[in-house]
Amino acid sequence: MDKIIIIRWDTQLGPQPIIQYPPAKEMPKKDLFVKIWAKYELQKEKSIIMLTTEDVDKKDKNYLTVTQQYEGELYFFILEFERLQKDQNFEDYSEILGSISKNLIELIHSDKFMRALSEGYNQIKGFVKLEKEQNIINIFKDKIKTHILKVLEKGVISKAKLINKLKENYGFSGENIDLLLSSFLKVGLILKKDLPGIKECIFLVKDLICIRIPPNLTTLNLGRKKLAGKKLKASFKRFYKDYVKKLEVFFTNFDIISENKDNTLYALFFNENIYNLIKSLRETNIPVEEALMILEDKQELFDDLLDKTIILERKGILYLFSDIRFVSFLPIFILKNLKERFDNLEITSDQYVNHVEILLSELNKEKKEIYTII
Asked: Which pLDDT value is given to residue 362?
C-alpha cells in the first residue's frame, strides 16, 4: 500500500479532499474521485470497491475504497496501491478496513486524528504484506493485545467493557481499540456482533497456542536426495533411521504443557533471525554456514537452538528437529466460563446463548476438527 486518501462527498459540490497520508505534493485529480463515487453508486452492496486506472506514465494504479457514514456525511476511505500481490483477495480485509476507517472518520475533527491516521496506515500496510503466522507473532509481542486475548478467553464481552478493563490495567485511552481488534479479526480469532441493548459484543471463536511439533519428513527426504543423489549412502541411511528414532523418543516423552507455561517458544519466535532460520529449515536442510548467516553470525543463538533441540547438525548440514508452530483451536473451555459468568450476572442471557451458538456453529463448520496448524 502506498497511501491513504480520505474525502468527503458533498451532494452539491462533489468530492471534497480532506487528507492523504503520507503527505505528497498534490492530491489526485477530482475526476478519480468521481469515478470512485460512480462505482460506489453502482456497487453499494459491496463492502469494498476496487478501481484500476492508468497514471500519466501509463502505469496501473489500484484504488481500494471503503465508505463510512458519519454525522450525516458520506466519507470515502481510499487506499492507493501501485502493485498488488498476486491472487490477493481484499474481501478478506473488509471487516478490518471497515473498523479502521470507522475509527479514523470518528476522530477526524479531534486532535487525536493524525496519530490515529499514522497508526492506521502502518497497521494496514502490515496487514497486506505479512503472512498469517507473522501477524499472530505480532499479537503475542504486544502487551495490550495479549491482555485482550486473556480477557476474551473468559468469554463474550462488549467493546465498552473491554475498553474499561484496559483503562484499569494499562491506562489505555480507548481511541485505538478498533486498530487493536483488527489484528484479531485478520487471523480469524474473533467475531463482532450487536445484541439487543448491547453494541459491538466481541466473541472469541478461535484461540491460539504455540507448540513444537515434529518436522515435515518430506523435506528431509528432499534434502537427502540432494546430498546423496539417486543412490543413498549407507551412512546417511543410518543417520536417517537414527534421526527418526530420536524424534519418536523425544516427542513421545516431551512435556508440552510445562514448556507452554514458561513461554520459551514465544520468546524464540520473537527473534526475527530465529524465525527466518526456522522458515528456511521447513523447506529443506541447509549448511551450517548458511544458517549462521541467517542468524547474523550470532553463535550464541545457534548454540541455544541446539540446546533446546530445535535444530540438529550432522557433518556441517543443519536439520530441523522441532518445528515451532501456532495452533488455532476451538475454545470449548469457554463454555464453563460462560456458565459461571452468567450465574454471577456478569453477562446477559443473550450474550451467553449467542456465544454458545457461535462455538457450536464453528464446531459444525470445522467438521469436528477443532484445531488447525498454522
From this structure: 86
Q: Are 130 and 85 in contact (CB under 8 A)?
A: no
DSSP string, 315-338: TTEEEESSEEEEEEE--TTHHHHH
- CATH architecture group of domain 130-206+330-374: Orthogonal Bundle (1.10)
Query: In the CATH scheme, what is the code of domain 1-129?
Result: 3.30.450
Check: CB of residue 119 under 8 Å from CB of residue 176: yes
Residue 243: name the closest of 265, 219, 210, 266 by CA.
219
Indicate whether 82 pLDDT > 80: no
How far, in Å, CA of 44 to CA of 302, rounded?
55
* In contact, 334 and 204? CB cutoff 8 Å: yes
The pTM of this model reads 0.71
Cell of 321: 528437529
C-alpha closest to that of 104 among 220, 219, 215, 20: 20
Three-class DSSP category at 250: helix
Q: Which pLDDT belongs to residue 222? A: 45
Q: How confident is the model at residue 308 (pLDDT cuts 50, 70, 90)?
A: very high
The string of pLDDT tens digits covering residues 283-307 is: 889 999 999 999 999 999 999 999 9
**Numbered ranges of CATH 1.10.10.10 in the chain:** 130-206+330-374
Q: How many percent of the chain have pLDDT more than 90?
A: 41
Q: What is the DSSP string of 106-122?
A: HTTTSTTHHHHHHHHHH
CA distance linking residue 103 with residue 6, whole number of Å: 13
Tell me, what's the pLDDT at 29? 87
Side-chain-side CA neighbours of 364 within 13 Å: the count stands at 6
Q: Where in the chain is the domain with CATH 3.30.450?
A: 1-129
Please give the Cα distance from 51 to 75 (Å, whole number): 17
Amino acid (one-letter) located at 304: D
